[in-house]
Amino acid sequence: MRHSTLRQLEVFEAIARLGSFTRAAEELFLTQPTVSMQIKKLTEAVGLPLFEQVGKKIYLTDAGRELHKTSRGVFEHFTRFEMLIADMKGLKKGALRLAVVTTAKYFAPRLLGPFCQQYPGIEVSLKVSNRERILERLADNQDDLCILGQPPEELEAESEPFLENPLVVLAPANHPLAGKKKIPLARLAEEPFLLREPGSGTRMAMERLFATHRLKIKVRMELGSNEAIKQAIVGGLGVSVLSRHTLALDAPMGQLAILDVEGFPIERHWYVAYPSGKQLSVVARTFLDYLKQAPKFVSEVPCHHAEQGECPLLPAKAGR
Ligand code: PGA
Predict the structure, then answer these.
(1) Tens digit of each residue's pLDDT, the chain (320 residues)
(2) Which of 51, 80, 147, 276 has an alpha carbon within 20 to 30 A of 203's alpha carbon?
(3) Is 13 left (phi over 0), alpha (psi -120 to 50) or beta?
(4) From ligand 1's centre to the CA of 231, what distance in Å?
(5) Distance (Å, rounded) from C-alpha 168 to C-alpha 243?
(6) Residue nearest to ligand 1 atom 9, measured at CA
(7) Looking at ligand 1, which atom is closest to the CA of residue 134?
(8) N-to-C CA span, the chain
(9) Shortest CA distance to 10 belongs to which of 31, 28, 32?
């Protein structure tokens, strides 16, 4: 087994990740016979089959799964070593694998812009998924750093808050409660609600608030994206609770209102997290340091009505 080369492991890792010999060959700029030959040699060295084919799909065998874990560890160590050497040479170079929850997509790219300009040698990959999926990736140590709306409770992880994340109640601008002050939560609970999918952190925070007040949410519809929810609100299907950051990009301005409801905004923060005991790469540490300046790069939600002194996206002044 020790005679197997790193190249063979690299080929194996690519097939396991891409689920295809052809795609692995393309990615590595190798011919398919070369790929097959490398895997044949590796399989002989291991002494057990690594893949099995069912129909057109390729699956890892038990031995294959174990080898996949081991090869990922080997490559991680090498990456860390390369970054360490780059750092010793005074270069900030290497890869940064970030995984962020769906709602963080509204600000993460804006944070990454100046970071990539400052460190052109750092290559960033960004994975976007909901909270549940990001927690699975965190447990599996698949990324350098994760960004999510609440520190992980279910697993051992280090986490630091770096930015505010207020959750607000959104309604159509012509909603009868728009402009009203200090609306009781019980009154809001009478409204039909549009909810994010189960596994969403936004949904979890909102359900917690209602449960604390022993109120039931009247669910009109579940939608898997913040964008779809905003459109459904404008379409008059109901109200919802979303991060104020979701208003940053292409919010249907003038068609949405933030309601001034008691207990809102839910004051949350964005956290950066990684598994306890993880050896952070130099690049990941550099990004952690950089996040301390995050508020500088993520400005307030733009409001086209600010100049007129009246902004339908902000609750009435007295309630703020
Ligand atoms: P979500 O997470 O995008 O999965 O809702 C956001 C959050 O945790 O605040």
Answers:
(1) 767 788 999 999 999 988 999 999 999 999 999 999 999 999 999 999 999 988 888 999 999 999 999 998 898 888 888 878 877 776 678 889 999 999 998 889 888 988 999 888 899 999 999 899 999 999 989 999 999 998 988 889 999 999 999 999 999 999 999 999 999 999 999 999 999 999 899 999 999 999 999 999 999 999 999 999 999 999 999 999 999 999 876 666 689 999 999 999 999 999 999 999 888 888 899 999 999 888 777 765 444 333 333 444 444 433 33
(2) 276
(3) alpha
(4) 18
(5) 6
(6) 149
(7) 4
(8) 66
(9) 28
Task: List Cβ neighbours of 49 (8 Å cut-off, separation of 6 or more).
Answer: 43, 61, 63, 64
Q: Residue 271 and residue 250: Cα distance in Å, rounded?
A: 24
Give the Cα separation of 244 and 259 in Å (integer). 12
Instruction: Give nearest CA residue, ligand 1 atom 6.
Output: 201
**Torsion angle of alpha carbons 71, 75, 77, 79, nearest 10°?**
-170
Helices (H), 145-200: 185-188
Per the CB < 8 A criterion, the answer to whether 192 and 239 are in contact is yes
Length of the chain: 320
